[in-house]
Design a protein that fits this description.
Layout lengths: L17 E5 L3 H26 L5 H26 L2 E5 L4 H4 L8 E7 L7 H12 L8 E7 L4 H24 L6 H6 L8 H20 L27 E6 L14 E6 L10 H15 L5 E6 L2 E3 L4 H9 L8 E5 L3 E2 L13 H11 L12 E4 L36 H10 L23 H11 L3 E4 L7 E3 L5 H19 L5 H8 L2 H11 L5 H16 L11 H23 L4 H16 L1 H13 L16 H8 L10 H27 L2 H17 L1 H9 L8 H22 L2
Parallel strand pairs: 3-4, 3-7, 4-6, 9-12, 10-13
Antiparallel strand pairs: 1-2, 5-6, 7-11, 8-13, 9-11
Helix pairs in contact: 1-2, 1-17, 2-10, 2-15, 2-16, 4-5, 5-7, 8-11, 13-19, 14-15, 16-18, 16-21, 16-22, 18-19, 21-22, 21-23, 21-24
Length: 737
């Protein structure tokens, strides 16, 4: 069913639905950029002068190249600061502009893959909060993609569909803002919740968790034969397409007689002989299935571990998508990625404030923010072609089955014909020989399909909008142990590098197709892994020279000293101001800059190595889910602001080496400087080593002071000590002989 992508007609005197303003600090940013550029050029000149007479040429050369990488990344970041724009939407005026009955249909896509790492009750709460959106129920459809083909997930959704009949009218009648059952029942308002609702939710939760623990569904648990597709040969990697319509708005109503939204379970066909393209493949299957059924002009993508925190989120998106000045070229409206239960000080920088809030605001003044993978409302037609494209070539269909506003005729959306067509388009052979994944739908070719898809849409001429209301529209779970945090970022880093070193490199392709500033914005993310070179170099080399009393930087308080001081202080001051303006705190900023250094010597370093091995044809990285299951001890440590190092991870070996090198070199260097003199010569190296040592305090605690299960494993500590000793021995032979 082709999607017209039509926009409802506005009334004669449409209300103003949105407004934009350029950030008030834009001129100060530009002035600072001019001064800082001169300072960078002066630094390059200083390196050119000092390299020729350096006693340690290779170390000085490495630091000079590191400074060039710093300069390169700083230049790219200026595109984000050139014209940051903040938008404001007015959902209360939406009814003045468009009748509710004329709002476009909305299809919600929720993706899950593994019930062991993504608990089914999380999916249930996601679905219930989304179905409870303040939106016409007859125009709302929720599609859940289960790439693991798990009985448990379908069972959980069947239970959710039953509970929705009571939960949705309860939310509507009481005007609840917290419409995620788990969150509402834990809140102060939950104490006044009727016992009947509480009992229904608790019963559902116990049934789902019991089945999840058992791992399969008994016949007595599911008498309606919904699980007939699970035959003895059914596996995660080999199974047929399964599509179950759990709620149909044309016939299902809640306990008050109101229409319920559509709810559909989808598990696409899997076969080891065909590539399934991970999450992008699952999303494309949902695009086609929904096209065969509800075919709504607007699509919302959500991760399974997120829930809707603002029932008017869809209305906020419509304030942009129904604006006739924006709609013709508007591909999507992106909300920031926010998380519930963040530690007060966000010790792991899980908020990724720059990536999900600061950067999108900067890109909002250009062609718009990148796609963050969740909390994003798409115009369906943007997934089928360029803004000038008039048709949506999904697959052959009967034109007479299409009706206004993208929805199918009553009773047809989930007819046997539509279900048969939906099963056809989820077969593992359907995409063969088509443009799916290359020109149509979510794009393949990298494990960061979200970033890659948004990038291609911008290159095709589409625009996007960043919508950042005061109340978070969506909230999700985040990892609470350091190894999971770093593993997730390493996967992103590898994916970004896949884009950076492809024929679609943002520095070449993006600057030509999207715009020069947009190419720079995408480049700073694509080349994220490059941070490993300067951060690793500055974490080891000056410290080793310090231990052997070899000066590498200008004398303290001399003319060139002030250049280094300005570059360091100005960059950090600007970073701090941006962080605070985005709603951060000083303590969170400190933890964020510490995690930036930690990522530099772990995720970025390992990501670059793994990507390089992959390019050489050696064993490459696979797609690994980040566990959304919280262990009680890990959760408690996180809430207390204590780092969790409780697994044997190569990341921690790298951190241990950096921490030990800096502390040992600082102590040895300080002692030699006090004994031999030359404090001014060694001042900057002492400062750098001391600064990193202070940041490494959680590492020292985990290695030597803690005894809980979150301490660093003894084997990891021992390896770190041995490698640090080896580095000291190597430095001795290189610098003293």
């Amino acid at each position: 069913m082709a999607d017209t992508g039509s926009t409802p007609e506005l009334r004669q005197s449409p209300a103003v639905l949105n407004s934009f303003r350029v950030d008030s600090g834009v001129h100060l940013n530009r002035a600072h950029a001019a001064v800082y550029s001169c300072a960078i050029l002066s630094l390059v000149y200083h390196h050119a002068l000092s390299l020729r007479r350096s006693p340690t040429f290779l170390i000085s050369l490495a630091l000079a190249l590191s400074d060039l990488v710093f300069a390169f990344m700083w230049v790219l970041s200026q595109a984000l600061r050139w014209r940051p724009v903040r938008g404001q939407e007015f959902p209360e005026r939406l009814a003045e502009a468009v009748d509710r009955k004329d709002w476009p249909g909305l299809d919600v896509f929720v993706c899950t893959a593994d019930p062991h790492k993504e608990p089914p009750m999380g999916v249930v709460n996601n679905v219930l909060s989304t179905m409870a959106l303040d939106y016409p129920a007859g125009k709302l459809s929720v599609y859940v993609s289960d790439d693991g083909g798990a009985q448990v997930t379908l069972f959980a959704l069947v239970e959710a569909a039953r509970f929705a009949g009571s939960w949705l009218p309860f939310c509507r009648e009481r005007g609840l803002v917290d419409r995620c059952p788990a969150i509402y029942l834990r809140s102060d308002g939950g104490s006044s919740c009727p016992e009947g609702i509480k009992m229904m939710y608790q019963t559902m939760k116990e049934k789902v968790e019991n089945v999840a623990e058992r791992g399969w569904v008994r016949d007595e648990d599911m008498p309606d034969q919904a699980f007939g597709e699970w035959t003895p040969g059914f596996t995660r990697q080999e199974h047929p397409s399964i599509i179950q319509v759990l709620l149909d708005s044309s016939k299902d109503v809640d306990v008050t007689g109101h229409v319920l939204p559509n709810l559909v379970y989808v598990s696409r066909e899997k076969n080891k002989a065909y590539r399934h393209n991970f999450k992008a493949g699952a999303l494309n299957a949902l695009v086609r299935v929904s096209g065969a059924m509800s075919n709504a002009p607007v699509i919302l993508t959500l991760d399974c571990d997120m829930y809707c925190n603002d029932p008017r989120a869809a209305q906020r998106a419509l304030c942009y998508m129904l604006d006739p000045a924006l709609a013709p070229r508007l591909a999507y409206v992106q909300f920031p990625q926010r998380f519930q239960g963040l530690d007060e000080n966000d010790i792991y920088a899980n908020e990724h404030k720059r990536l999900s809030q600061v950067h999108p605001t900067g890109m909002n003044g250009l062609r718009g923010p990148m796609y963050l993978g969740t909390g994003c409302f798409f115009a369906r037609r943007s997934l089928y072609g360029r803004p000038s494209s008039q048709c949506s070539p999904v697959y052959p269909n009967d034109a007479n089955e299409h009706v206004d506003d993208g929805l199918t005729a009553e009773g047809l959306a989930f007819s046997e014909t539509a279900l048969k067509r939906a099963r056809q388009v989820t077969s593992c052979t359907f995409e063969h020989g088509t443009k799916w994944g290359s020109k149509i739908g979510f794009r393949y070719g990298t494990i960061v399909e979200d970033f890659y898809t948004g990038y291609h849409l911008h290159c095709e001429g589409w625009k996007s909008i960043f919508c950042h209301p005061q109340r978070p529209a969506f909230l999700g779970e985040m990892p609470v142990n350091l190894d999971d945090v770093l593993g997730q970022v390493k996967r992103w880093c590898i994916g970004f590098l896949e884009v950076a070193f492809s024929k679609y490199c943002p520095l070449t392709y993006g600057t030509r197709k999207a715009s020069f500033p947009m190419g720079m914005c995408y480049s700073i993310i694509s080349f994220w892994g490059m941070w490993c070179f300067p951060i690793s170099a500055y974490s080891i080399l000056p410290q080793m020279a310090l231990a052997h009393h070899i000066p590498l930087f200008p004398k303290g308080f001399g003319p060139w000293f002030w250049l280094y001081a300005y570059l360091f202080l100005a960059a950090n001051a600007q970073d701090l101001v941006e962080f605070l303006v985005a709603g951060g705190t000083l303590r969170r900023w400190w933890n964020d800059q510490r995690m930036w250094m930690i990522r530099g010597v772990t995720t970025h370093l390992f990501g670059v190595v793994e990507f390089s091995l992959k390019q050489m044809g050696l064993p490459a990285v696979g797609f690994n889910l980040t566990s959304k299951v919280m262990e009680a001890e890990q959760s408690m440590r996180y809430k207390r602001g204590v780092f969790d190092f409780g697994v044997e991870s190569p990341f921690f070996v790298s951190l241990g080496v950096v921490g030990l090198v800096n502390s040992s070199c600082f102590l040895v260097g300080l002692a030699r400087t006090l004994r031999q003199g030359g404090v001014e010569d060694m001042f900057l190296q002492l400062f750098l080593s001391g600064f990193i040592t202070i940041n490494c305090w959680p590492i020292y605690e985990a290695m030597f002071l803690r005894s809980d299960s979150g301490r660093m494993p003894r084997r990891v500590s021992a390896i770190s000590v041995l490698l640090t000793g080896a580095l000291h021995i190597a430095a001795y032979f290189l610098l003293e002989t």
